[in-house]
Amino acid sequence: MTIRVSIIYSSRPRHTHEKWVTLHDGASLLQALQASGLLQEFPEIDLSQTRVGIWSRKASLEQLLRENDRVEIYRPLTVDPKVARRERFREQGARTAGLFARKRPGAKAGY
């Protein structure tokens, strides 16, 4: 019996590469990565350092796959998300950023 899984990798922002592979039932995440050819196509993927997951949940390379699983290869963060948020907030200003930036005229505070 065989299964089909999708392998997703984003080499840079807004550029994703998706490969569908057919594997034998009971195949591991590592076997799917090797079968996809993405490791050869993108030599910057170092499996000893790179994190991988299935459907946005961290997974090990030994994890067994199921039909229609989505295997994701994660890039390392280039900037801390908290720092990026502070910088965006600083650039936009307090009145135009955040949850209540577009409140209705005459509305109560916080609505």
Secondary structural class: alpha+beta
CATH-derived topology of one domain: Ubiquitin-like (UB roll)
Q: According to CATH, what is the class of one domain?
A: Alpha Beta
Helical content class? 10-25%
Largest sheet: 5 strands, mixed
Q: Mean pLDDT across all residues, rounded? A: 86
C-alpha geometry:
elongated
Could you explain how this protein is built, in words?
The chain has 111 residues and is of the alpha+beta class. The chain has a domain of 73 residues: Beta-grasp domain (Ubiquitin-like (UB roll)). It is 22% helix and 30% strand. It contains three helices and five strands, in the order ββααβββα. The chain has a five-stranded mixed β-sheet with strand order 2-1-5-3-4, with helices on one face. It starts with a strand and ends in a 19-residue tail after the last helix. The model has no long low-confidence stretch (mean pLDDT 86).
Write the layout of secondary structure elements.
Elements: E1 2-12, E2 15-24, H1 29-36, H2 38-41, E3 51-54, E4 57-59, E5 70-74, H3 81-92
Parallel strand pairs: 1-5
Antiparallel strand pairs: 1-2, 3-4, 3-5
